[in-house]
């Protein structure tokens, strides 16, 4: 019997980072051509941030909203996949005409975080001497990233955001914005994030970083110019598999997959269960659109997160916030449990009760339960 062979799946590039010469898509760039001092010491000699905008800035600049992405997100918050944008918008149902962040009313700005890999300066970027940063990219904290974003706001002429919103890692930066620059945020939406990274979160993240650095193709972080298939894909894939389990809930995984095998595969003969195939799928997608060095840099920045550091502790830091604030967590979140959001809601003078997003999806509920998030946005901006 004649069979038609399946075309071979192309090997992934060494890094899934956006590079010069790739389609820009909707990206714009802010360039800082002077050094940025870093909290851990040293400096970045220069930097740029990729960002996207929707809507039109009002003449009095009063309608600007800052939306901050999570670990593997980017500036493409809304809109289809296409040239320059490998995935559709990660909060697509929230932004646009008639939506909670109505772009006929609001000017929405979403930067790719400093240290990122989708157009902003990070490990995959070129240094001033023309070589890639790679493993020599400096340690960043959330405060460094917010300092870079404050420069973007200055360049856009935005003295005060009508709203700063983010979830998970984006919520950490939103919190830092409100603490570091209390006069520059009128309203604040914090979703599924803590005042400081906890021991268990640092532990999970540390295992993920170890998986990447243990990959023989890591090469100390200097792998970006290797050939296809020669990047630390196994390590990054393992990190993604582990992270994704923490992003979802046990009841959801049980209800979706249970103990079922994947198709005709036999787990007793080297085959996979459905849940393992699901994790393989997410790992394979990430290695084609993300960068292992960025994953390490941003994970370490998340582990550094502590709003109270050098500010007299968490309680003192939270008292600095003047923005009208809503804090929400996901009832099934096992990565950033509700107790951490309860601490924020209790400690921020301008917050009221903790809001709870009901979802079976775990931590990812802040991305999936768009209607519930939209209601919170409308409450703050109504």
TrEMBL record:
<comment type="function">
    <text>Transfers an acetyl group from acetyl-CoA to L-homoserine, forming acetyl-L-homoserine.</text>
</comment>
<dbReference type="GO" id="GO:0009086">
    <property type="term" value="P:methionine biosynthetic process"/>
</dbReference>
<dbReference type="InterPro" id="IPR000073">
    <property type="entry name" value="AB_hydrolase_1"/>
</dbReference>
<feature type="active site">
    <location>
        <position position="333"/>
    </location>
</feature>
<dbReference type="GO" id="GO:0004414">
    <property type="term" value="F:homoserine O-acetyltransferase activity"/>
</dbReference>
<dbReference type="InterPro" id="IPR008220">
    <property type="entry name" value="HAT_MetX-like"/>
</dbReference>
<feature type="binding site">
    <location>
        <position position="240"/>
    </location>
    <ligand>
        <name>substrate</name>
    </ligand>
</feature>
<dbReference type="GO" id="GO:0005737">
    <property type="term" value="C:cytoplasm"/>
</dbReference>
<feature type="active site">
    <location>
        <position position="363"/>
    </location>
</feature>
<keyword id="KW-0012">Acyltransferase</keyword>
<comment type="subunit">
    <text>Homodimer.</text>
</comment>
<feature type="region of interest" description="Disordered">
    <location>
        <begin position="1"/>
        <end position="23"/>
    </location>
</feature>
<feature type="binding site">
    <location>
        <position position="364"/>
    </location>
    <ligand>
        <name>substrate</name>
    </ligand>
</feature>
<keyword id="KW-0808">Transferase</keyword>
<keyword id="KW-0486">Methionine biosynthesis</keyword>
<comment type="similarity">
    <text>Belongs to the AB hydrolase superfamily. MetX family.</text>
</comment>
<feature type="active site" description="Nucleophile">
    <location>
        <position position="168"/>
    </location>
</feature>
<dbReference type="Pfam" id="PF00561">
    <property type="entry name" value="Abhydrolase_1"/>
</dbReference>
<keyword id="KW-0963">Cytoplasm</keyword>
<dbReference type="GO" id="GO:0009092">
    <property type="term" value="P:homoserine metabolic process"/>
</dbReference>
<dbReference type="InterPro" id="IPR029058">
    <property type="entry name" value="AB_hydrolase_fold"/>
</dbReference>
<protein>
    <recommendedName>
        <fullName>Homoserine O-acetyltransferase</fullName>
        <ecNumber>2.3.1.31</ecNumber>
    </recommendedName>
</protein>
<feature type="domain" description="AB hydrolase-1">
    <location>
        <begin position="63"/>
        <end position="361"/>
    </location>
</feature>
<keyword id="KW-0028">Amino-acid biosynthesis</keyword>
<comment type="pathway">
    <text>Amino-acid biosynthesis; L-methionine biosynthesis via de novo pathway; O-acetyl-L-homoserine from L-homoserine: step 1/1.</text>
</comment>
């Amino acid at each position: 019997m004649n069979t038609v062979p399946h075309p071979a799946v192309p090997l992934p590039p060494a890094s899934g980072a956006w590079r010069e010469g790739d389609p820009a898509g909707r990206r714009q760039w802010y360039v800082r051509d002077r050094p940025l001092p870093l909290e851990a010491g040293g400096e970045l000699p220069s930097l740029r941030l990729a960002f996207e905008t929707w809507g039109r800035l009002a003449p009095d600049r009063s309608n600007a909203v800052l939306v901050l992405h999570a670990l593997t997100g980017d500036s493409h918050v809304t809109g289809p996949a296409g040239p320059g944008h490998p995935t559709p918008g990660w909060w697509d149902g929230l932004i646009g005409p008639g939506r909670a962040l109505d772009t006929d009313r609001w000017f929405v700005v979403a930067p790719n975080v400093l240290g990122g890999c989708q157009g902003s300066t990070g490990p995959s970027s070129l240094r001033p001497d023309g070589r890639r940063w790679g493993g020599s990219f400096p340690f960043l904290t959330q405060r460094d990233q917010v300092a870079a974003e404050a420069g973007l706001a200055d360049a856009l002429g935005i003295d005060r955001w009508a709203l700063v919103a983010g979830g998970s890692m984006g919520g950490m930066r939103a919190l830092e914005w409100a603490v570091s620059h209390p006069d520059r945020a009128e309203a604040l939406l914090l979703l599924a994030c803590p005042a400081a990274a906890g021991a268990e979160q640092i532990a999970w993240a540390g295992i993920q970083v170890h998986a990447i650095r243990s990959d023989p193709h890591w090469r100390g972080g200097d792998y970006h110019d290797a050939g296809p298939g020669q990047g630390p894909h196994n390590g990054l894939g393992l990190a993604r598999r582990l992270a994704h389990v923490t992003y979802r809930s046990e009841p959801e995984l049980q209800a979706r997959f249970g103990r079922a095998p994947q198709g005709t595969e036999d787990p007793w003969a080297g085959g996979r269960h459905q849940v393992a195939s699901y994790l393989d799928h997410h790992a394979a997608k990430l290695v084609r659109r993300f960068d292992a060095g960025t994953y390490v840099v941003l994970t370490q920045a998340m582990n550094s997160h502590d709003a109270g550091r050098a500010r007299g502790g968490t309680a003192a830091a939270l008292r600095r916030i003047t923005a009208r604030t809503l804090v929400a967590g996901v009832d099934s979140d096992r990565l950033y449990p509700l107790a951490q959001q309860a601490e924020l809601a209790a400690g921020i003078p301008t917050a009221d009760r903790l809001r709870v997003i009901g979802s079976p999806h775990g931590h990812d509920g802040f991305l999936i339960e768009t209607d519930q998030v939209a209601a919170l946005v409308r409450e703050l901006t109504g």
